[in-house]
Amino acid sequence: MEKEPGRWKRPGVLLAIFVLLVVAVYFLVIFVKQSVNLYDLTRRVRAQEARVTQVAQENEVLRRQLESYQYPLLQAKGMGFKEPGERAAIPMEESGGKETGQPETEEPQTPLEELAALPTWQKWLWIIFMGPEH
């Protein structure tokens, strides 16, 4: 038997092997990309399922609360209404030590106190448009 010395040197055989390798690498890359996409989608589905479970639990709590408001007596208790025979109590605000019954009047503030009471963004606008000397 004689070996053909140029068997692998034929241009058609090397070209076919090269094309097969390129196609194999191409399909391998596509397979890996699809596997990563599948993993990402599976992770997203699990996260959404957990969110759906959480919302379903919140919905159940709200449904129970709504059912408790369907009964008039419970509705009156939940809304702060008084029942017949009960006395209503109105909470009063503390007046800071003054018992005169007169409404408190604010003392006039100086311009620096007014500026200090402003939010930061308004202070910046004041400095930009009025200048730091004001």
How would you summarize the topology of this molecule?
Elements: H1 11-68, H2 72-79, H3 111-117, H4 120-130
Describe the structure.
- There is one protein chain.
- This protein has 134 residues and is mainly alpha-helical.
- The chain has a domain of 69 residues.
- It contains four helices and no strands.
- It starts with 10 loop residues before the first helix and ends with a helix.
- 0% of the residues are buried.
- The mean pLDDT is 77.
List the main descriptive attributes of the protein structure presented here.
mainly alpha; about 130 residues
User: What would you call the structural class?
Assistant: mainly alpha
Share of β-strand residues:
under 5%
**How many β strands by DSSP?**
0
- Major sheet size, sense and barrel closure: none
Bin the helical content.
55-70%
